[in-house]
Amino acid sequence: MILAIDVGNTNTVLGCMDDDKIHFTARFATDRTKTSDEYAILVQNLFMVNRCTFSKIEGGIISSVVPELSLVLQDAIEKVTGKISLIVGSGVKTGLNILIDNPAQLGSDLVVDAVAAYAEYPKPAIIFDMGTATTLSVLDIRGNYIGGMIMPGVRVAMEALSRETAQLPHISLEAPKRITGTNTVDCMKSGAIFGNAAMLDGVIDRIEEELRQTVTVIATGGLARHIVPYCKRKIILDNDLTLKGLYIIYKKNIK
Length: 255
Fold this sequence. Notes:
By secondary structure, this protein is α/β, with parallel strands linked by helices. The chain is 38% helix and 22% strand. The protein has two domains: 86 residues, ATPase, nucleotide binding domain (Nucleotidyltransferase, domain 5, 2-Layer Sandwich); 138 residues, Nucleotidyltransferase, domain 5 (2-Layer Sandwich), CATH 3.30.420.40. It has seven helices and ten strands. The strands form two sheets. A five-stranded mixed β-sheet has the order 3-2-1-4-5, with helices on both faces. Its cofactor is NH4(+); K(+).
């Protein structure tokens, strides 16, 4: 059984898994100020809550878009499990052929998502990862990573709208009863939910036009569940895509 950690700008996801299944997952706020001791206590408590023992852990793997936390979490995991975790980055085998201008610039989270999509879904494929940013990755028919997009995340966009305007409030992410809102809050909710759903649909159409092929579309990330149900295109919601990718990469690198 391994411990996989995906560190995002806003939230961090932890998963405990083996060949058969994911035993448990947990999501907690990414805090750049926490020490390795504090993260060790947090991880230890999560294991206790989920009734899982550290003795079964054979190793760990970390993907992080917050570089300063990679070694902090690696140290925390070593303190509670006695194992040194692999950090996804330069020199780590992924099996992914990256055909972009500078492969070193590709975020580890996008690499991990693409590795999982390559292993599990038909190609060509599009992967949306909806978190602080909404990112898109494209795999061609051969499974090569050929590029993508980076867009403002749903909450980031809405928080900016509220912050930069005098009369628009902060809202919760839930769909209104109608697309056409009749009050300020419902208008903002409609824009956040249906506007982003329409964006996903439109981007899929344009990429299919560019590739001249029908694509498999997968969505993951903490905000995907709020948007995907309102899309007109078929999109597979896979909340565990990143953890699956981490497990595959771990197995490729650890004998």
